[in-house]
Design brief:
Blueprint (H helix, E strand, L loop, with lengths): L17 H14 L5 H11 L5 H13 L4 H44 L3 H29 L10 H16 L5 H28 L5
Helix pairs in contact: 1-4, 2-5, 3-4, 6-7
Length: 209
């Protein structure tokens, strides 16, 4: 009897057209208060099922290593995954078009409102509240993204240790992001490569060490 696939092992869906891809990334961008990454995993993995959680983690890791905003890098890679260079352009356009229009309107409105002294207080309070909500969204996203790491080749304890070192290095020791990516990222890539290579060798040798 064929083994039943778990929901997370099912084959992901894909956008039916470039229009659907553009609309999806536009909706994703408009939900991204405080950062698109806070809702990208839920929208792309859970709601639309275009990516598995592990695929999302892999693409996000690549997007963070590359220069430029990671959300733009992520949209380019996902669009290219489904429709090649046309999909990359459409996904990026969906990611930036509507937020750019809203940002220009908001900047114009805040510029006029800041000229009134009585408006400065509530503008400052509103921005402080938005920052608190954005921080909560990011923390929730980190907790969600940590789940697929339990199945990583390095194992959950090693992944947790690396995450702790990266956090401590950036928050308390003030390490530059480039050092963290090249140092810890390079170490992780090398260790994972050796593990995968060893597993492949064992599989070819019939499981003999």
């Amino acid at each position: 009897m064929a083994e039943t696939l778990a929901p997370q092992d099912a084959a992901p869906a894909r956008p039916a057209s470039l229009t659907e891809l553009f609309v999806a990334f536009t909706q994703l961008a408009l939900q991204g208060f405080g950062g698109v990454l806070a809702v990208a995993q839920r929208e792309l993995c859970e709601r639309r099922n275009w990516l598995t959680p592990r695929e999302f983690i892999d693409l996000l890791a690549t997007a963070q290593v590359l220069p430029g905003p990671n959300v733009c890098n992520l949209s380019l890679m996902i669009g290219d995954r489904f429709f090649g260079w046309r999909g990359a352009c459409v996904a990026l356009a969906g990611m930036i078009a509507a937020p750019m229009a809203l940002l220009l309107m908001l900047a114009w409105g805040l510029g006029h409102a800041s000229q009134a002294p009585e408006a400065a207080g509530w503008i400052r309070g509103a921005l402080t509240g938005i920052a608190a909500v954005a921080a909560g969204q990011i923390i929730g996203t980190v907790l969600k993204l940590s789940a697929p790491l339990r199945e990583h080749e390095l194992g959950a304890p090693a992944c947790a240790a690396l995450a702790g070192i990266a956090f401590a290095g950036m928050v308390w020791l003030r390490w530059p992001l480039l050092w963290v990516l090249l140092g810890l990222g390079g170490l992780t890539c090398t260790a994972t490569w050796f593990i995968l290579r060893r597993r492949a060798a064992l599989a070819q040798g019939g499981g003999q060490p």
